[in-house]
Amino acid sequence: MASPTNESHFNYSNKSSFTLIENYIYIYQLNKYVIIPVYPESITDSLGSTFSEENILSRTAPIQSYSNSGPRRVQFTLPLHRDMMNSFNWQNNSFIDEIGKELKDDYIDTLIRYLQAMALPSFKAVEAASSKYNRMVNPPVISCRFGNTIFIKGIVSGDVSVTYEGPIDANGKYMQVNIIFNVVELEPQDAESIAKNGSFRSGEVALTAGLHKSMER
């Protein structure tokens, strides 16, 4: 099972701000900052290139013509266990007031809902200026950081899969929940930036663009 994050990264002395935690997801279309209290069980970071082949008469190898590279794809496998929430500080999440009490929801239930919402667009930003027949889509874009290993800003591609596993707690909730999702990078890259920053690229750009402002209270 994945290890919980180190709570020493929180700044408890000042509730209006806090030190950037290592594991988070920022959901742009909802303007929500989600703290992930565990490290993923596994992360698969893939980036490839495409060449077109042209066979030449009497040549033992075809001519390789470069076509394109990417996009970068990262798959996260995220195990969540309700017992880990007992010692977790919720104060720095931007959805802390939205935990449903009527269904005896906890942080895990709310976290699942927002992770599922990552795959969907938002229409709220344009409804006031557009008719219901001519609405633009605010697509699902997120930024993910896990430790000092992975940072990616991109779109959620494919399924957000949630698997529930026993045992069952006193509130009728599954204790173990596994979530798998894929993120495809938006920004183009070159060999120099990858050689310098590797899997942690684009993090500085996202933060200086104002991501950290969403964490202020």
Q: Write down the secondary-structure element order.
A: EEEEEEHHEEEHH
Helix segment tally:
4
What is the topology, as strand order, of the major beta sheet? 2-1-7-8-9-6-3
Question: Portion of residues in helices?
Answer: 10-25%
Total beta strands = 9
Distance between the termini: 33 Å
Low-confidence stretches: 4-18, 212-217
Strand content: 25-35%
Q: Gyration radius, to the nearest Å?
A: 21 Å
| Major sheet attributes | 7 strands, antiparallel
In round numbers, the mean pLDDT is 76
Structural class: mainly beta
What is the overall shape? elongated
Question: How would you sum up this structure, described in words?
Answer:
The chain is mainly β. Helices cover 13% and strands 33% of the residues. The chain is built from 4 helices and 9 strands. The strands form 2 sheets. It has a 7-stranded antiparallel β-sheet with strand order 2-1-7-8-9-6-3, covered by helices on one side.
Q: In a few lines, what is going on in this structure?
A:
With 217 residues, the protein is mostly beta strands.
SSE map:
Elements: E1 24-27, E2 32-35, E3 42-46, E4 49-54, E5 63-69, E6 73-81, H1 107-117, H2 124-127, E7 141-146, E8 150-168, E9 174-185, H3 191-197, H4 203-208
Antiparallel strand pairs: 1-2, 1-7, 3-6, 4-5, 6-9, 7-8, 8-9
